[in-house]
Amino acid sequence: MREDTIYWRSFEELTNHPDFVKNSQNEFNLPTAAEQDEAAQAPDRRDFLKKVGFGLTAAALASCETPVRHVIPFLAAPEQIDYSNANYYATSYLLEGEYCSLLIKTKAGRPIKIEGNKLSSITRGGTSARVQASLLGLYDSARYKKPELGKKEATWAAVDAKLALAVKSGKKVVLVTPSTPSPSFNEVVSRLKASIPTFEHVVYDALPNSGIIKANKINFGTGVVPSYDFSKAHTIVSLGADFLGTWVSPIEYSRQFGKMRRLGKQTKHMSRLYVVEPLMSLTGANADVRIMAKASQVGAYAAALYNAVSAKMGQASGVDAVTGIDTKAIARMADDLVANKGASLVVAGSNDPAVQQVVNAINYTLGNYGNTLNLTIPLLTNTGTEEGIASLVTGLQNGSIGTVIFSGVDPVYTHPQGDTLKGLLKNAVTVSLDHTPTDTSDVCGIVAPGHHFLEAWGDYMPKPGFYSLGQPVITPLFQTRQAEETLLKLAGYNGQYYDFIQAVWKTKVFPQQSIYTSFTQFWNYTLHDGIFEVGRPSLRGKELAANGGDLEAPYEYLSISGTAPASFAFSNRVAATLAAKPASTGMEVVVYQKVGMGAGTQGNNPWLLEFPDPITRITWENYVTVAPEVATAKGISLNECQTSLVTVKVNGKEYSLPAIVQPGQDPNTLGIALGFGRKVVGKAGEGRGKNVFPLVSLAAGFTDYIAKGATLENTSETYMIGAVQTSHTNAGRPVIQEATLAEYQKEATAGRYMPKINTPDGPMNPTDLSLWKTEVNKRPNHAWGMNIDLNSCIGCGACVVSCNVENNVAIVGKQEVVNRREMHWIRIDRYYSSQKTRDEGASNTELETAAKNPRVTFQPMMCQHCNSAPCETVCPVLATTHSSEGLNQMTYNRCIGTRYCANNCPYKVRRFNWFSYPQNAERFSIGTFNDSLARMVLNPDVTVRARGVMEKCSFCIQRIQDGKLQAKKEGRRPVDGEIITACAQACPTDAITFGDMNDPNSRVSAAINEQYEERAFRVLEELNVRPSVSYLTKIRNT
Amino acid sequence: MNVTASIRPHLVNGGKTVSDVTNDISRQVESAPTRLWWMAFGASLVLLGWGSYCLLTTWFVGIGVWGLNKTVGWAWDITNFVWWVGIGHAGTLISAVLLLFRQKWRMAINRSAEAMTIFAVLCAATFILAHMGRTWLAHWALPLGNTYGSLWVNFNSPLVWDVFAISTYLTVSLVFWYIGLIPDLATIRDRAQKPLSRFIYGLLAFGWNGGAKDWSRYESVSLILAGLSTPLVLSVHTIVSMDFATSLEPGWHTTIFPPYFVAGAIFSGFAMVQTLLLITRRVFKLEDYITVEHIDSMNKVIMVTGSVVGIAYITEFFIAWYSGVTYEQYAFTNRMFGPYWWAYWSMMSCNVISPQLFWSRKLRRNIATSFIISIVVNIGMWFERFVIIVSSLHRDYLPSSWAMFEPTMYDVGDYIFSFGLFFTLFFLFAKFLPVVNMAEIKGIIKGSSAPKEGQLKEAQPVQPATASN
Question: Whole-model pTM?
Fold first, then answer.
């Protein structure tokens, strides 16, 4: 060390700072007393934990106190919500008078699928094609995205200001809505009434049940639509009521009806359905006995039936013998009804109160009230009458109405005087609260768009005591606002509708139960369940878990039975007048609803437009249905998809539409479907068919769907129509196997075709033959299988739409349907019977021609998942292979598109991607693939198929995997019913059963085993392809 | 080695000498293309151009541009494929089987027949590629090594058998054809005036020097290849027929298909050879080489195979009835009386009835009749495949799925493409390569010491002609 070098530790030491000098004395630099005090006050670990604990508790408490009032976006990912897991939320559907309780499947925050809610005693998990498809309405790019004033985009503030001004004009303010059985909406209306003295509420239903209501008012003094219970009816007579397709509450009735069509070892009886109708309806197609009659004759049938039933019951009917009808059939119906009195049901589709009164009289005479009909728990949907809209027209004419607010109605399109109304609306301030443009909203000066029902809160009471909640499942996509909030603002209430509903429920619904002590608890569980039914212990999630999470376990549904009415006021003169009323001469046009389209509210829904009508199997438009003999006389023939344009002239109106030859149609009747030809609808629905609402008329104040004195002319112009099935009979082939109930009761194998193969060892079952000595189809774990009861299947097509939604099935448009290239993975083959059978010596041509009044069979057909699959052996690249669980799998990535598999498929269920359906906006602009908004509906678990590959039903493999994974996570085997395909889920009659055939206790095993070698059969069994799908024979109670 | 029975008429007319043969056949190779050739070639290019547009559209847009649908998954594509493969049968049959059977008359026609075979198989291959949904992955049908683990082709699939059968056939036919060309290419090389021609033909001639060793090897290779390709004549169409026979479509699932398809293939192949020869002999003035005798022999084969095919049609019907299978019976009734009745009756009249005219020697030796019937037969054979494929598929098991097939512009256009390709290649061949095997034909011309015409009836030993050039 050199002497002159100074080593230092700090500048303080170097400079000999006084502080340094002072502190250098102490070896340990301890804090001073003042410093110690300070440290004592700083938080230590325990304090920290205390504070954090307090903070968390406070935050938790605070969250209880302040509910989150908006749907949480995924940016701030909520706990327990994972992109890869689906969440289900219960909500409710009410459209065109059809109510359905739903579960909405959401994934990554997007609603992607609608399923039925099994907790509801009304719909019991059933859905319909229209309900399934309603999801796409949310992602409809034609929707209003912002409020509009005079067709120009505006702010909500401006709209509110305009509205506030409009209701203060002193003139009448009319709110037009469909009948909305909602406690909170009713409260909204009463608030409006209270705050706006000139306020009026008009209920307008496009297709009202006013005839029934009027008849019940006269007969029982209570103007309601009763609840019907088809599940208790052994004999059903439908006089033109399509209760399985479109009449009143079809989902509910389908469920009930399907229950009475089940047969098995223990059940050898089923209901018998008589249908008298002019057109072939879905209900008519399911009839055991079907009689064709003119629509104007149906009243006479009702009178004659009343007469026959009364005679048998020893009562006077006052009806003379009715002429011109099938008296033998009437006698048979009467016998059957009387034999099952108290357990029978007569319904009529006519909106004529006289007909409905006679029907009431028949049901009353038979003692059906309190058993199959219930007036004390009526149906509250679709209870509008014709008077309301008439008063609106009058009010607009005399100028007493200053403001009209439309919400959920489209009278310009659906009202017969729509055009007149459209002109009159110019005299008033018009407001539309609809979320999507309609013919009516298009003429409205103020458009204050509401939410789609999947974005909105709502509550319903479809029947007294049966409550149902609607909750949003996604943040509003556009600048729309809950319609009720817009209305409440006019009544001076500026809060949220959510709070409003809660307030209503707190006072009106909560006191009706005793299970829950706190309203919050009641609200949360009810919201979870989606429904609350007075008098029934609520089935909440906890209880569901207690029974092993078995979603399929039978629930104790609330019975909808009631008591017989005390008095019945009916004059026999009504029946006598009907009986004496002569049938109209000449042709009648009957305007009817299609199962998939109804009144056309969902007219821009490509799923519904491409949904083949269950009866005609035609897509995308409406047409004139013509009886075969009329078609022959007029030179109309259907050649594949080619038909002729015809001109129908009636009531001074003229329609040029394609004609369809419809077996089973009354020769003096023409049928045209409603719901098409909307002017303002959107891209998909634009220019589809013609609007026949102008043919609807008022007969003595009641909506009448029959237009008399029609003429039909063949223009001989050809027209291509999008039909998915062009051969209409089963051509004498045993692909459908059927028998009558009597035959079945005698011999359970009745109607079965049991092919035998001749071998050196004698005739053998095809499935007993194999090239291999050992079992090649080993299924060590699961063996997925499906059973379809042809007897319960009513052909409604809910499964078809459900499958399209679940599996991202391409919508190909009308031209491609004409080219016979629809992509549906499941189809419902509809077969008519021929006049003569092969055994009776019918030729091929005769076998291929439908009978005049054919029996109809529906056969859902999808990939049969053959265990010796012909498609698998022929694929050169092993793109389609078999899984060890019995699934025939399609590996899209590997497919090179030779189409050999499709050719070799005996069931023709394979579908080829002829074009690139996605990323091909020029060709396929309509649909879910090429619209950025509609694409949100795609199921992220299912590949969107590329051009040039084959696809087909996968048995919803994504659901199977999901279910297996869930079970694996919980360390258990999948429970039967936990894994279910989209088609089976949607089925309103539970005709489709899916499950593990390796599990002897599964319902699918039970369905097959119970009726093994009896009703259970596999289609084309003789080919020995060993399908995993089996069917149960169709039994007709003729 | 060529020994001809004295009672047989001579196969080459006009008293041709060896140098006449060389001159006659090399002429069109060496001289400038004729106006007629240009016109024909131009027409082929137009077909090829239009066809290419259609085919490229098909490939870019997807085979949705065709008329196929959910029920009819194959129609014109596979019809054309089978049709072209069938046509491709004549070449091998003529060059291999007839070689083994020592049918000398084949010598004048085998070159063009083989060329036609190759072009026909190429045309067939375009349909293999075109009919795929994802043509760009066509190589997946080959058992190539890959990085996917044990991912392999499906050896159960007749389409994989097809890949093997057709690629083998194409390879063997190509080699056989080319080996046969070598001595002639050497002749042209040696006669060539321009250095470029000399260079190109010199390359193509593989250094042929005409020595005895070359000839010995040439003969051996020809025999070996003939032996190799003879089974192919039977196997290729047998395997093509299995595309149908091993399926379970009613109307396809038939054990008679292999022999029936082979007979049909020979039938159509001979008809196509006939068509082309009748044109070639006229255009290139080769009437002395391709004589009425040849036409007569070809017509006999056409008649026999046509009758075999006819019996097969009738047998199918009998078996369908005898099987008692509803679907099978319907498929055949539907062929006759269903919506595609016209295709069926076209097939029957073209294939079964028209060749029966050849029982008459006069008609058999009539050039116009032969030409017309050769075309009629190929129309009939196209309909045969159309009937088998479309009329079976369009109405099979479930009536709900029954549908009709209607061709579109692109179905037609892609077929036209194959014609364009075929004729373009054929005219190029006819211009730049000798259409008759000069080397072989020289072995069957009359020697200078051979008897003159009219002396044939007097039996006398004929000197064996020597194979020399």
Answer: 0.87
